[in-house]
Amino acid sequence: MVPRMLRHLVLLGMMLGLARIGYATVPAGFSDTLITSVGAPTALAFTPDGRMLITTQGGTLRVWAGTLLPTPALTLSLCTGSERGLLGVAVDPGFAANRRIYLFYTASTCVNRVSRFSFFSTPGQENQVDPASELILVNNMPSPAGNHNAGDLHIGKDGYLYISIGDGGCDYAGGGCAGSNDASRDQHELTGKILRITLDGNIPPTNPFQGAGTARCNVNGGTTAGTKCQETFAWGFRNPFRFAMDPNAAGTRFFINDVGQGLWEEIDEAQAGADYGWNCREGAHVNSTSGPCNPTPPGMVDPIFEYPHGTGGPAGINNCNSITGGAFVPNGLWPGFDGTYLFSDFVCGAIFKLTQAGTWSATSFATSLGGSSAVHMAFGAWGTTQALYYTIYAEGGQVRRIPRRVPRPGGPLDFHTVAPCRIADTRLGFGMQGGPALASGVTRTFQVAGLCGIPSTASAVQLNVTVASPSTAGFLRVEPGDDAAASTSVLNFAAGANRANNAVLLLGTAGDLAITPVIPSGSAHVAVDVMGYFE
After folding, report:
1. Are β-strands 214-215 and 228-229 bridged in parallel, bridged antiparallel, or unpaired?
2. Which terminus of the chain is more exposed, N or C, with fewer CB under 10 A?
3. Which candidate, 103, 74, 76, 106, places its Cα nearest to that of 90?
4. Cβ(40)–Cβ(391) below 8 Å
5. For range 176-200, the mean pLDDT
6. Gap between the Cα atoms of 144 and 146, Å rounded
């Protein structure tokens, strides 16, 4: 039996050269894979059990649990148009116990709002958010022109919730628009700021603006002129669309991607109480010398990195005119990437690698994403390791994944038996290893390593694969989870018939398998039992 298994293993290993073509051009050793299609995906966050939460600009919160669940977790009533919508999501550090999340959205009254919600705990409703659980934390942040809402949310290592809000496009007080909009200079308004609050909406004791001359602004979005908002952590931003926490830092450290007006895009390192200069400056360059910019305000903080519109873009790529997503690479994840910050540009469709050697400089990481790409980026679970996930508006809206493939060990592999154990059954409730049924032609990835006694060092597994209640006749394709693309059938079946087969299959880099029912229509249920592994 074992020699036959090894021959099958060698055959499948030869097929690894038949890799599918990804969407983006990525470095050697990386791949780019479509995870799911969803319209206008604005942001991502991950729950401790591996589910991915996806916000859409239209107001739905979707859950991906190995596949995109058909029913939205939450649908909000919004003020839509321009750049308004459901824009940001963060997961509470205590989610496993309290099921709480945080959402940034444009309320039906056309003001921006941050609220806390909770998922239901009732069995069968674990992927649904209770609308009645909403607790409004910050309200009435102006959105006068519909754009420059920013809308990102993250929880720092200090346990506080950080929020980005833009300048609203036009002055909330009826002043100028675009480069003439000086709303960010108003410290009595929650516009053009990074905010910091506790997870219950209170003011952290270390916030920079407290005491005499300050007030809460969370209810009305502002206070009286001359008084500073206590929620403000940093100010002087145009549209801090996305920011990213550094998982490698001992404390809370984050970079802010501030979208420029017409000349410069910038990345700022956050400092408590700091003024980043808009609208007096765009990046490190003068934009206005009138109004609150005359005289020039002292102490404005320069970006750590900036790049011009048009020619002379980062890494020599031109027409990069709108900075969007950002993510720090976790140290130790990808060789040669320790201390690296990744950022993306919506217009030129590229992801860049920002590193520091004295000064900060950028090189290209992923290109040819197309326009309207890499809106949001985040590292999240990928089997026993992590990968970079990103959203695009192109192609009707997608969530994609860039992992690094780890070379397989050479030489013979030892076989180890385990007690027969079920690792997946789509007839069970919705979940990472459960339902729903696999739809025609749709690939779904299931984790294997780390379950049922299969170690993370396993290269291949012996499985029994069962198809149940297929809508039509067809076959099942099972392959390594990092999209290595086998071209053979593991199991043929007839319509409505249950069928099982034993196979030895290579695992993906993350210790996972990708399963695709090749049928003309409908769906099929799949159950997978493991009996042994090779390492």
Report:
1. parallel
2. N
3. 103
4. no
5. 98
6. 6
> What is d(CA 91, CA 191) in angstroms, rounded to the nearest whole number?
24
Span 425-480, pLDDT tens digits: 999 988 888 889 999 988 888 999 989 999 988 999 999 999 999 999 999 999 88
H or E element in which residue 516 lies:
strand 512-518
Which of 199-208, 323-332, 383-392 has the least mean pLDDT? 383-392
The model's pLDDT over 113-136, given as tens digits with 9 standing for 90+, comes to 999 999 999 988 999 999 999 999
| pLDDT greater than 50 at residue 6 | no
Q: What is the 3-state secondary structure (H, E, C) of 420-489?
A: EEEEEECCCCECCCCECCEECCCCEEEECCCCCCCCCCCCEEEEEEEEECCCCCEEEEEEECCCCCCCCC
What average pLDDT does the structure give for the chain? Answer: 92
Give the CA-trace dihedral at 194, 57, 104, 168, to 10 degrees.
40
Alpha carbon of residue 89 to chain centroid: 9
Contacts (Cβ under 8 Å, ≥6 apart) of 290: none
Q: What is the number of other CB atoms lying within 10 angstroms of the CB of residue 211?
A: 7
Q: DSSP H helical segments within 184-321, as ranges?
A: none
What's the burial of 193, exposed, middle or buried (CB within 10 Å: 0-12/13-18/19+)? Answer: buried
Q: How many angstroms separate the CA atoms of 19 and 32, rounded?
A: 11
The pLDDT value given to residue 483:
58
DSSP line for 154-181:
EE-TTS-EEEEE---SB-TTS--BGGG-
Q: What are the structure tokens assigned to 498, written together?
A: 């249950």
Domains with residue ranges and CATH for the chain: 2-12+411-534 (2.60.120), 35-402 (2.120.10.30)
Question: What φ, ψ does residue 450 adopt, rounded to 5°?
Answer: 95, -10
Terminal Cα distance for the chain, rounded: 17
Region of 81 (left: φ > 0; alpha: ψ -120 to 50; beta: rest) is left
Closest by Cα among 214, 216, 147, 149 to 178: 147
The token pair that represents 77 in the structure block: 């009533």
Q: How far apart are CA 513 and CA 482, in angstroms?
A: 8
Neighbouring C-beta atoms of residue 192, cutoff 10 Å: 31
Residues 343 and 19: their CA atoms lie apart, in Å, by 27
Give the pLDDT confidence score for residue 19 in this predicted structure.
30
Give the contacts of 136 (CB within 8 A, at least 6 positions apart): 113, 114, 115
DSSP string, 386-433: EEEEEEESGGG-EEEEE-BPPPPP-S---EEEEEEEEEEETTSSBSTT
Helices (H) and strands (E) counted in the chain, each on its own, are: 2, 37
pLDDT digits (tens, 9 = 90+) for 148-185: 999 999 999 999 999 999 999 999 999 899 999 999 99
Peptide bond into 436 cis (omega under 30): yes
